[in-house]
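A further point concerns the way the authors explain their paired sequence and structure data. An entry of this sort, consisting of the sequence and the corresponding backbone structure tokens, reads as follows:
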Amino acid sequence: MSARTPPTKKRALIEGMPLELIARFFALSDKQACVAACLVCRRWSGAAFDELRRSLPSLVPLFEVLGPLMETEKGRVRLGIIYNAGELFKSYATRVRCITYDDDEDDAVISTGLIIQALTVHPGGILPNLRALHWQVYDPGLTQILAFCPPSLERLSLHVGNEYLEVDSVKRLLSGLSFYLANRLKFFGFGTAFSISDNGALSASLNAFLNSQSGLLEVKLPYYEIQDPATISAVCRASPQLRTFCGEVQDVTKKILLAVLNELAGRSASLRCVRLISESHEEEI
């Protein structure tokens, strides 16, 4: 009959575990386990909370570190000042690896002024170690996104959900991304709620952005009607290791598309999946 380990000895074992091992354990755990671990002890709480902070469902929890936030017509602004808030913000910001942000949520709109304040803390980028950014864009201040695109970014997914945004502002955003993220991304997703004609007006800017990337492995354009076959050529020509390309096509005949795909098949030896869906013809090519 085995003897039970005394509670004091169990506690000593927990407290004696190296922090590196604890951090590794929580990195392999799901969010529920990390939340539960936050209630075990201070030692576990710190490591578990660090892991939870790596993936944020909104920017608001991070910016609340700078001080109490107040809702205004321009979005959330800082109401008060917390002592040593800058160092605390920097500490949390360096841990974040993934952000999912919907700027249409009532409690999630961050003002440009608040972003500028955060940039004073991190001049080189608000989230210097960010790997993945998923942004639902509704707010006209599209250039805010550039503040969250550090050199470490590998996955970028943008969906312009506001059909009344100016097309030129989206063009400027794509131009800025071409400069800030040149040859950085491995995954790119893009979609809009624009009309077919407005999407057509974006073609040149989107093609230029895709040409600025040489390491893309996967491109998905689920809500963007491709009207220019050059969009497909641009990404496959610029990224020789591309494996997956998905998108919608509009006003392009099946014959032309098949000819383009046959040509691209010879250019990209790594290409494994090309999925083009035509809603107008109700068929998948």
In short: The first strand starts at residue 55 and ends at 56. The chain has a mean pLDDT of 77.
